[in-house]
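re: ur msg from earlier - yeah i can do the iron/sulfur cluster complex, just paste it... oh wait u already did. ok heres what im feeding in:
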Amino acid sequence: MGTASEEAIRRICDHLGNDRTRLLDIVRAVDRRFQCVDDLALDAIASQLALDRAEVEGVVSFYSFLSTHPKGRVVIRLCDDVVDRMKGADEVRTAFETELGIRPGETTPDGSISLERTSCIGMSDQAPSAMVDQVIVNELTASKARALVRALRALPPGSDLRASLSDCYGDGNNAHDLVRASVRNSIRLRGPVIFAEYENGSGLRQSLAMSPAEVIRVIKASRLRGRGGAGFPTGIKWEHTRSHQADQRYIICNADEGEPGTFKDRVILTERPDLLIEGMTIAGYAVGATQGIVYLRAEYEYLHAFLESVLERRRHAGLLGRGILGHSGVDFDIHVRLGAGSYVCGEETALIESLEGRRGQPRYKPPFPAEHGYLQKPTVVNNVETLCRVSRILERGSAWFAALGSKASTGTKLLSVCGDCHRPGIYEVEFGIKLSEVLELSGSGHPAAVLVGGPSGRLIPPAEFDRSICFDDLSTGGAIIVFDRTRDLLDIASQYLAFFIHESCGYCTPCRVGNTLLKERLDKIRDGRGRPEDISYLENLAGTITTASRCGLGWTSPNPVLSTLEGFPEEYERRIAPNTDVDSCGFDLDASVQEAGRLAGPEGSGSHAL
Ligand code: SF4
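and the outut:
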């Protein structure tokens, strides 16, 4: 603890091989040790790695869990997501502020505690929640928040927070010695794929009895599609990756579950890590990769030691490492690497940039990772849920899997249901299930709206609750957020726009500036100051952001506006005064570009995409 010393930083860099691609790990370690990466540390790291200081500073400034300014010895990150606010996060924040005598973004005068807001930490089923360093505290109330601050103040510096703050642990592996978290799994419906009994190694044994090409054929025959939301066929992705000549290929598991309202990967990582690791191992065999990486979001760091122990156990059992299950030449091993707080790193090329020690800015595609991925080598990036299904498909066969779900959407899907429902949690359902059935299962009554797919998805009105959850109808990465009739849907859309504005990597103007303009105009309508022409302004600007942005964040960020305009036009109409004295024709591109320039400042003049 204390001021960074060049010697300590040199040791951290040496420990990580002075490897430029480990820059994120290095700055994480420095930030952890000294509560920030200050000027001295930036210079020392740059010198040690032979980098420009600006490059190091650029990485530190990109990730919300890192700082160039000193933080408290303990950092409380209060989840600021929509669902948390619905469950009382504002009262909890006020209690923290009062008890600590500081506001979010500040540190107590004695340097002991910092208070911050953060985006969804993957605990929407037990909101409001917060992180105290890496320790998760959930179902917070104002009185719990005050008690927590008093407990923190009573602890001697350097205390083990995990042991000191959690007096009871959650179910399953949440109570494991290496986890000891008060988190609950909230598994409400166990389906036949992820949560069925599974004998470790069974899928892997089946795969090693086949050639790699046959394994890919099995996955293609199962018609497995990626569960991250886009639904790209997994077998085809693997085939492309294998087809590119290279001395190394990589398997990356995207465990950067950042979509607000989604928490299914958290439960898989806690209760089904073997299924995931086995899926990665099978993928490695199929595409000819010997190395895998789990990119674990910083919010789930409390699972890191547990996951390492599972990897170690599998190495001892011959299920990972060299000569897997006695097959000479079949080598595959996995490392866990941590993010540092960035939603956009869930995009596969941004994730790869992050793994290479850079700012998590999405790359242009093509080339796709299957050809030029991690370290420019052919790389498979698969979702946690997708990889788990691989193990079961190899164990039970493609026909078994393809018989589940529907023709174009085979198998099951994990849904994270939260918001205004009596039974929030994880539901493993077959594709094709009606949204109304999910609402019935989760005790949601007759809600006003359901957000399918999180803020990048669509807000669905009651007239469409009979639609099906599948790739061809309501596609979702897993988030189902229920809103009852007391909720202000335009305010919710505004909060989600604020989320996208905060999480934008800032590379292209339509996303960086356009979403700010969109929110300003939406807020004007929400507050009853709207005019009829504001609707066409919103539609046109949303269209520009969707088409001119570079990555999925920008393409989908206007969805909270577009889907409320489409499904809930009355929410706009009732707040808009009739036009009596204005001759505006709505969207004025020139005026908007000028407005964009004003908001973007000097940096905005170098627009990359407009
Ligand atoms: Fe970054 Fe947004 Fe552009 Fe994506 S769309 S590259 S998040 S600025």
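cool cool. Residues 329 and 442 are 48 Å apart (CA to CA). ping me if u need the other ligands too
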